[in-house]
Each structure stands twice: as C-alpha cells, then as structure tokens.
Amino acid sequence: MQLDADVAVVGAGAAGLSLALRLAAPPEGARRLRTVLLAAPPGPFRAVPRTWCFWEGRGGLYDEALAASWERLRVRPADGTAVTAGIAPLRYKMLPSHRFEALADRRIAGSSDVARIEAVVDAVEPVPHGAVVRAHRADGTRLAVRARWVFDSRPPGRLPPARTTLLQHFRGWFVRSRRPVFDPETVELMDFRTPQPSHGLSFGYLLPCSKHEALVEYTEFSRRVLGRAEYERALRQYTGQVLGLEPDDYEVTGSEQGVIPMTDAVFPRHSAPGVFRIGACAGATRPATGYTFSAVQRQTQAVAAALHTGRHPLPPRPHSARSRLMDAVLLHALDSGRIDGPDFFTRLFTRVPAVRLLRFLDGRTSLPQDLAIGAHVPVAAILAAALGLPLTPRRSPPAA
C-alpha cells in the first residue's frame, strides 16, 4: 500500500504529536498540507508513558490535558531549609503523556489535513523531491508513504560526539497517602536531602496533585544509570527518612522511569534532502537541566509556520548559541567536580528571582540578565571550566 502526502511525521511522542497538532489546525489563509502521522502501535516500539513538565502562563494550548499546575516552587539544601518562591504569572505544569496523546487524537480526528496511522517505521529513503517512509502495521501489512517533507522524531541509536555527557536518570512512584501529607500548592523542585553519589548529584522531586496524591521521584545527574533495586531503595529512603512516611502510610499506584542525556553534543537536524529531525534527537533537550517540552513547542511551531507559508522548513536550533555555551561550561564543571551541584542550584534559587531564573533556563533572558545571574555562581570554578572546555576533545559516548 502506498500513500502520497505533503508531510510525513515519524513518531508520536512530544515532538511528533506537537507538529501534527499544528499542521491539523492551519491559520486562516495558510497552505493546506496533506499530512500522515506514523505512530508505533502498542508494543516494544511505542514509547513508555511519561510525564512532561514545563512552565508558561495560563491558557496554554494543552491546559485541558494537564494533571496539575502550580505557582510555587521549593528547593531544599541538605539541611532541609526551605527556599520557596512564587512564579506568577508563570505556572509549572504537569502533562502526562497519555493525556497529551488523547488530546492530540481528538484534535487530529477532527482535521481533514492529518491522518494518523499506527505502524512501525522500518526505513526513511530519500528520493527525488522528497522521501519514502517504509513501515509495517501490527498485522504485517507493508506500507509506504511518499512525502515532500519528512520529520523524524525517533531517538538516535547513538548520541553524537560530545565533550561532556551526563545522564539525568530517575525513577518515580505515584503515591496515594492515607493522611493529608502533601502540599498541593508547591512543587518540590530539587530536594537535596538525599545521599549524594560520589560523582554528580542527586535530589528528590515531588509533584503534589492533592493532599493525598503525588508523583515522588528520585533523580541523579551522573555517568551511569542505576539498577531497579537501587532506585527502589533510594525511593524508600526518601519517602521514609525524608518525607516521614511509614510503609503503612501510603500505597504506590504506579511508577515511571527514564533516562535523559545531558550533553553538549551537536545534534544534526537535516539527515537528507527533505528529511529532518525534530525534538530531543534534534537538540531540544536543554543540556544543563533536561527540560525538553517547551523547546519542542518552539521548534515545531517554527516548522509548521515555515510549511504553512511555503518556506524551507529546516527546524531551528531550540536553544541559542549563548545558552548552549553556558550549558557546556556548566556540564563540564559538574562532570569535573569543580562545582558542588546541590550548592550551585540552591544558590541560584536563593539569590535570583524565580521568574527570571525560569526565563533564563528557557533561554529567554538578555545578555545583561545572563551576566547578572552569573554574578551569583562560583566564578572561579566556572571560569576554570570555561578555560578547560576547548581543550576537552569530543568523544562518542556509549550507545543510547
């Protein structure tokens, strides 16, 4: 079976769905584009459920699918001192992937421009004036989609060479407590009352959906992931010794686990004429924090605008050159041990207004604002890392 389209979108994660949603609702007077979204069927090729968090004002495109949102964030150093800040007019938003997928499916189903097909993509082959996406359905039926433009959001088999690559890896429990123990008004963004690894840093992360329900995560920035038993042990320690919950006080209703590369690698965005990469595989993940969703929105919005106006749709780099350089220096400083991670992040949240800091993390601050924020970091250590960065060779990390 062969289909012809203007656009083929490979993968139905955050990037693929976001682009398909924008193409399903073109602005008035825009070019109409026949689009095929290829989503993996249930099974080993479909991404596991996950939770995306980001910050923006009220009235976002996906607010109806949110699990919760907050206007206050809290960071705790090892001594437990609370550093709490309001972030209005921003809100910190929690979007579960299954809710986002359901929202996208409803909106796409109402569009005559986008068709969603469940199939596993086997290959993307460049051809004159476009590319052919070859795939197969769950029943083995072969499918080919010929399109002028192809946008591939699948994760790469290997990460590009980098000077520094750390892994943000985590496991979380969805917890329901018998007593009202959670503060539903405030996110525990970084709670450093966790045993710190010999290399990197760790923290607790708590997203309270009510006084009785929360997502509780143990997170590390380090070079290697842990085994399942190590994550479980860390979570038991955090919920028990730090949060003060006895095993009989709560039940675990679900879990999630993931690994996010934090790297100064340069991700290619153009793999062949008419074939592009989008999302995390095109550099949407902020190297120093692991946040991805907001950058995906900026990137897919720019791609959709180019397609709707007939311009060349090369996905823009989601983060500015200045942001990428600052992140490369910070990653190098963390990896080399020149700075103490918990102290560094606590100092920033203590001394920099929270809204300005969030805008900085989103790459939306000016050079003078960046310099003002830089006055609150350990200057000597950061300068040493910056001077050592050009001497550090880029190496290919292990397979992802």
Mean pLDDT equals 95
What's the CATH H-level superfamily name of the largest domain? Answer: FAD/NAD(P)-binding domain
Named at the architecture level, the CATH assignment of the largest domain is: 3-Layer(bba) Sandwich
The helix content is 25-40%
Main beta sheet strand tally, sense and closure: 8 strands, mixed
The tally of helices reads 9
Radius of gyration: 22 Å
Oligomer: single chain
Number of separate domains: 3
CATH topology of the largest domain: FAD/NAD(P)-binding domain
Low-pLDDT residue spans: none
- The global form is globular
CATH class group of the largest domain? Alpha Beta
What is the H/E order? Answer: EHEEEEEEHEEEEEEEEHEEEHHHHHH
- Counted beta strands: 18
Keywords, please?
alpha/beta; FAD/NAD(P)-binding domain; seven-stranded mixed beta sheet; 32% strand
List the helices and strands and how they pair.
Blueprint: E1 2-10, H1 14-24, E2 35-39, E3 51-56, E4 68-70, E5 72-76, E6 83-86, E7 91-96, H2 97-109, E8 114-118, E9 120-127, E10 130-136, E11 142-152, E12 165-177, E13 186-191, E14 201-208, E15 213-222, H3 228-242, E16 250-263, E17 270-272, E18 275-277, H4 293-309, H5 321-336, H6 341-351, H7 354-361, H8 367-374, H9 379-388
Parallel strand pairs: 1-2, 1-11, 2-8, 5-13, 11-18
Antiparallel strand pairs: 3-7, 4-7, 5-6, 9-10, 10-11, 12-15, 12-16, 13-14, 14-15, 17-18
